[in-house]
Inverse folding.
């Protein structure tokens, strides 16, 4: 018996596709091989590393969350995101809190089909192309036009990342 308050992990792709359709956004979900690095993942999918967008769940000081969409090869810039959100404290929750906040396990998280519609903040560098992101289940990637993604969630678009390694 499934407790209705617990996410059903094997229905993630269906939730993503259903939410995308309701928002009028075309999303393609494709199986993807296991990769051990960003570069390897990009090569296996025939895309550039920056075309892989991480959906990070960020916890606000008040206990609410937001999504930050960050392209591969870059990391979230707390110094840029905090004033944009209007708070002094943001953090990355642990895996169980991220699962509880979204209904998706780390590595599968996407705003599409999230159990709660948290605000979306997108790094401006993702615009103008198709991107790959979590698809609600391990072993799959969702491909979506980044501009359509931003419009669908009325996302705040700004420079919210820095190059990894800085």
């Amino acid at each position: 018996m499934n407790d209705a308050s617990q996410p059903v992990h094997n229905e993630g792709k269906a939730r993503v596709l259903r939410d995308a359709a309701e928002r009028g956004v075309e999303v393609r979900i494709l199986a993807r091989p296991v990769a051990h690095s960003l570069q390897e993942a990009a090569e296996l999918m025939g895309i550039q590393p920056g075309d892989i967008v991480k959906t990070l769940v960020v916890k606000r000081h008040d206990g609410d969350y937001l999504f930050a969409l960050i392209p591969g090869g870059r990391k979230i810039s707390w110094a840029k995101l905090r004033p944009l959100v209007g708070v002094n404290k943001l953090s990355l929750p642990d895996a169980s809190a991220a699962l509880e906040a979204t209904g998706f396990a780390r590595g599968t998280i996407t705003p599409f089909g999230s159990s709660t519609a948290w605000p979306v903040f997108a790094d401006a560098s993702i615009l103008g192309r198709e991107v790959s992101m979590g698809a609600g289940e391990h072993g799959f990637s969702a491909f979506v036009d980044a501009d359509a993604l931003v419009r669908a969630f009325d996302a705040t678009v700004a420079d919210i990342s820095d190059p990894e390694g800085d």
Observations:
- The beta strands are 27-31, 53-60, 65-71, 74-76, 90-91, 120-123, 130-134, 140-145, 156-158, 161-163.
- The chain has one domain: 9-163.
- The helical segments are 12-22, 38-45, 78-85, 95-102, 146-152.
